[in-house]
Design goal:
heterodimer; A: FAD/NAD(P)-binding domain; Glutaredoxin; eight-stranded mixed beta sheet; 28% strand; B: mainly alpha; 70% helix; globular
Chain lengths: 518, 63
C-alpha cells in the first residue's frame, strides 16, 4: 500500500516575535542525516534546533539499502535501529546476470555473532518517520517544519541564519550550524563553495512499484537484459510489496520525455512480465561523484549529501552520511561542553573526507563498469561479462556495485600487529554476542577500555568493560593472543590497542582521541 | 615475483605461431575481443599487483 504522508505540525517560531537567545547547534535539514545528528547530539546531552523547508518525510523511497554499520548507528538512536530491522527486508544474496544467465552471485553472509544483519532494505521515508518519532521524544531537540534558510552569515564564534516561514522571516544565531540539507545544499550554495567531482554521462530511471509477487529478497542486477537491450537493470525488494526498479536509459534520452508514466509503465511491464503493478514513485537521475574540499567551514559543518555525493548501486549515500553523524556527534558534543578544543573537529574533516574518497572511488569504478565509454572500455567490459559466465576468476571483475562497508580510518593510535587485523585502530569495533546481549550495546556513549582476558591496569580514567577471552570476543579481538586492552571511542571506533599498557599510556591515548591528534 | 622482460618462453616461435593460429578466421572485432579476454586471463594468472603494474607501464612505455 502507498505510504501515508502525514504533515507534521508547523508552529510559529519564537524568533518571529522576539530575538531568540543564541542556540548551541542549528541543524539545517530534517532528512535522515540531520535527524540522526540531532538525536546523536541529544545522546551526548547537547541541545539543537532542526529546521526543514518541508513538513513531510522523503517523497519516494530514495535511499533504501541500509548497511550493517548504518543499522548499528541507528541502533544507538533510541528504537530507530530496532524498528528499521523489524520493518525492513533483510537480504544478503545478490545475483548479477548477463542477458538472462547468472554470471555472479554474492552472499554477504553475515557470519554469526552480529546483532545487525548485513543489509536491510527500507524506504527512506520510514527511516525518517522513525527518526522524527524519536527526535520528538527528546527534550533536547526542537524541530521546526516549514522553516527555510535563505541567508547565512558567520563570525568567529557563531553562525546566523536568516529563516523564512509561512509567518514571515527571522534570524537565528547558533554556536554551530550543521548543514544536512542534501545534495543540492542551499547552505553550500549560499556560501559559494565549490563542489568538485565527476558527472557521468548516463541517465537512469528509478521507479518504485507496488506489486504482489514472489520474488525472493535478493538483489537482482542485469547487464544487457533481453527485456532492456544494451542497458542495465536492477530489481530490489522493499517492504509493503514495493519493488525498486532501476533502468539505465543512456545519455541520449530526454529526461522530460522519459519521466512520463506512459513511457515508464511499458518499460516496467517488460521487467515484471504480466504481473499487475502500480507505479508508486519515479525519478530520473544522473550519476555524480563530488565532494567539498573540506567539510568544516568555520562555524558551519557539512554532513551527508551536502558534503559528498556518490552514484548509487553501492549503498554509499545514506550509509556514508550516517557515518558522518557517527564521527561528528561525540566530537562536537565535547566541543560544545567545553571538554575538547574546537580544533579537534579537524579530525572529523580528516576522517570523513577520507571515507568520502573511498566511497567515491568505489562508486566511480562501479559506474565505469556499468556505463563504459564506447571503444576499449566497452570492449573490456563486454569481454569480462562474457568470461564471467564461463570461468570463475572473471566474476571478481564484474562490478554491479561494491556494497558499503565502513572504511578503516588512518589512525596513529598504538597497535599490536599480533592482534586481529579487522580490529586494528581506525576500524569499527566488531560486534560479538555476550550471552543474551551484544558487545556494541555495552559500549555506551563514553570512551571505554575493553580489558579482555585480563584486568585493566590500576588508575585508568575511562570506564572499563572486562570481558572473558572466549567465543566471538576471542576470535575477533585476540586471535592468537592471550589478552588485550582496547580503547574504544564513543563512536565505537578502535582508537588504540595493546597486549599490555600502563595507565599513563592509556591516559595519553585518551587525550589524543579527544584532541583528534593526527 | 617481479616482471621479467628477459626471454622466458619455453618455445617463443611456437607461441607466436599459436597466437596467430588462435586468431585465424576472426574478424578484426572478434580478434580485438579475443585479445581482451587473453589479457584478462593472463593478468589473473599473474595476479600480483606489482607485476601487473610493471607490465602495464612497460606496455605503455614501449608504444
Amino acid at each position: 500500500m502507498a505510504y501515508d504522508y502525514k504533515p507534521y505540525p508547523y508552529r510559529r517560531a519564537p524568533g518571529l516575535t522576539a530575538p531568540e537567545p543564541r542556540h548551541k547547534v542549528l541543524i539545517v535539514g530534517a532528512g535522515p542525516i540531520g535527524l540522526a545528528m540531532a538525536i546523536e547530539l541529544a545522546n551526548h546531552g547537547v541541545r539543537s534546533v532542526v529546521i526543514d523547508d518541508n513538513d513531510v518525510v522523503s517523497v519516494g523511497s530514495r535511499a533504501i539499502c541500509w548497511s550493517k554499520r548504518a543499522l548499528e548507528v541507528l541502533d544507538r538512536l533510541g528504537d530507530v535501529g530496532a524498528r528499521a530491522v523489524a520493518k525492513g527486508v533483510t537480504w544478503k544474496v545478490g545475483r548479477t546476470r548477463h542477458h538472462e544467465a547468472e554470471v555472479y552471485a554474492f552472499d554477504l553472509l553475515p557470519e554469526a555473532g552480529h546483532k545487525m544483519p548485513a543489509f536491510v532494505n527500507l524506504q527512506q521515508y520510514y527511516v525518517e518517520e522513525y527518526l522524527i518519532d524519536e527526535a520528538l521524544r527528546r527534550p533536547e531537540i526542537e524541530i521546526r517544519f516549514k522553516n527555510r534558510v535563505v541567508g547565512l552569515d558567520q563570525s568567529t564564534d557563531h553562525a546566523t541564519a536568516r529563516i523564512e516561514t509561512p509567518d514571515g522571516a527571522y534570524e537565528l544565531e547558533a554556536d554551530w550550524l550543521i548543514a544536512c540539507d542534501g545534495a543540492r545544499s542551499p547552505v553550500r550554495e549560499m556560501m559559494g563553495l565549490a563542489f568538485e567531482g565527476v558527472l557521468f554521462e548516463e541517465r537512469f530511471l528509478i521507479a518504485d512499484i507496488e506489486m504482489t509477487a514472489d520474488f525472493p529478497p535478493e538483489r537482482w542486477f542485469w547487464f544487457e537484459p533481453t527485456f532492456h537491450p544494451g542497458q542495465s537493470a536492477l530489481l530490489h525488494k522493499q517492504p509493503d510489496n514495493i519493488y525498486r526498479i532501476d533502468l539505465q536509459l543512456g545519455w541520449d534520452t530526454d529526461p522530460e520525455v522519459e519521466r512520463k508514466p506512459e513511457r515508464i509503465v511499458p518499460r516496467i511491464e517488460k521487467v515484471v512480465g504480466d504481473r499487475k503493478f502500480r507505479l508508486d514513485w519515479s525519478s530520473i537521475y544522473t550519476f555524480q561523484c563530488r565532494r567539498l574540499d573540506s567539510f568544516l567551514h568555520g562555524r558551519v559543518i557539512f554532513a551527508g549529501d551536502s558534503a559528498h555525493v556518490v552514484s548509487p548501486f553501492g549503498a554509499r549515500g545514506g550509509n556514508g552520511g550516517l557515518q558522518d553523524v557517527d564521527a561528528l556527534g561525540w566530537r562536537l558534543a565535547a566541543v560544545v561542553r567545553g571538554d575538547a578544543p574546537g580544533a579537534s573537529l579537524a579530525a572529523y574533516d580528516r576522517e570523513r573526507t577520507f571515507g568520502a574518497d573511498e566511497n567515491i572511488l568505489n562508486s566511480s569504478r562501479t559506474t565505469r563498469f556499468m556505463t563504459p565509454a564506447d571503444g576499449i572500455e566497452r570492449l573490456f567490459r563486454d569481454q569480462v561479462l562474457r568470461l564471467a559466465g564461463q570461468v570463475p576468476f572473471a566474476r571478481t571483475l564484474v562490478n554491479s556495485g561494491r556494497l558499503s562497508v565502513p572504511c578503516t580510518y588512518a589512525l596513529t593510535g598504538a597497535d599490536d600487529p599480533a592482534l586481529p587485523l579487522a580490529a586494528r585502530p581506525g576500524s569499527v569495533a566488531p560486534d560479538a554476542p555476550l550471552g543474551e546481549a551484544w558487545l556494541l550495546d555495552r559500549l555506551g556513549r563514553e570512551p571505554v577500555l575493553l580489558a579482555i582476558g585480563r584486568a585493566a591496569p590500576k588508575g585508568v580514567t575511562v570506564p572499563v568493560l572486562e570481558l572473558a577471552a572466549e567465543g566471538w570476543v576471542r576470535a575477533r579481538y585476540l586471535g592468537g593472543a592471550g589478552a588485550a586492552l582496547y580503547l574504544i571511542r564513543p563512536d565505537q571506533i578502535v582508537a588504540a590497542r595493546w597486549q599490555d599498557a600502563d595507565a599513563a599510556t592509556i591516559a595519553d591515548a585518551v587525550r589524543a582521541m579527544w584532541e583528534g591528534r593526527e | 615475483m617481479s616482471l621479467t622482460l628477459q626471454p622466458n618462453f619455453q618455445d617463443a616461435d611456437g607461441f607466436y605461431a599459436a597466437l596467430l593460429a588462435t586468431h585465424k578466421g576472426l574478424s578484426e572485432a572478434e580478434s580485438a575481443a579475443l585479445n581482451a579476454r587473453l589479457i584478462l586471463i593472463l593478468a589473473n594468472h599473474v595476479g600480483e599487483k606489482a607485476t601487473l603494474d610493471e607490465a602495464l607501464k612497460a606496455a605503455r612505455a614501449t608504444g
